[in-house]
Amino acid sequence: MSEQGSSAEPHDHDPRWLDRLNAAAIEAEYETGRRESTAEEARRGVIIRLARIIGGFTIIGIGLAGLLLPGPGWVMIIFGLSLLPFAWAERTVLLIRRKVPGVPEEGTIPLRTWIIMGLLLVVFTTLSVLFGDDITRWLSGLWGDPDRLLG
Questions:
Q1: Cβ-count burial 131-142 (b if 16+ within 10 Å, e if not)
Q2: What is the pTM of this model?
Q3: Where are the chain's structural domains?
């Protein structure tokens, strides 16, 4: 392989490319982050930003699957978008919030609403754990034998 061919892909032959990438990420974090004072704070900011990007896109992917499969697809997509540290993701979340009735544009949900949702979650989870079999039998009595309906 010629010398010119090896310079086309420096990361294959030059172990310093990772050091240069790391230095560039830290420098970018100094410029765009929340004004870190030490390299360790900047490194932590880069790691958090990368974790938010990976987590956000992963949750968006799960949300997209949730649109086709049973699950809270739109909620997962909005949650994933809110994790992403990009301006376009924030604008998209604001646009969605404007379209959803009952959610203020700034996205704050009143404490009373959080308390009611939490209490409902605890009540229905407790009921399903304690009386799940009874509820299943009651529903099957209303609709008939599920094996006979589906089979």
A1: eeeeeeeeeeee
A2: 0.54
A3: 3-108, 109-151
* Residue 53 CB-density burial (10 A; 0-12 exposed, 13-18 middle, 19+ buried): middle
pLDDT at residue 61, as a whole number: 93
pLDDT tens across 33-72, in order? 666 777 777 778 788 888 999 999 999 999 899 888 877 8
100-149 pLDDT, tens digit each: 776 666 667 778 877 888 899 899 889 888 888 887 787 777 776 656 65
What tokens were used for 121? 């979650």
Cβ atoms of 98 and 115 closer than 8 Å: no
Cα–Cα distance measured from residue 74 to residue 68, given in angstroms and rounded to the nearest whole number: 11
Other C-beta atoms lying within 10 Å of the C-beta of residue 58: 13
Query: How much of the chain is in helix, strand and coil states, percent to nearest 5?
Result: 75, 0, 25
Q: List Cβ neighbours of 61 (8 Å cut-off, separation of 6 or more).
A: 80
Angstrom distance (rounded) from CA 10 to CA 54: 26
C-alpha distances out from residue 91 to 10, 41, 50, 127, Å: 37, 27, 20, 39
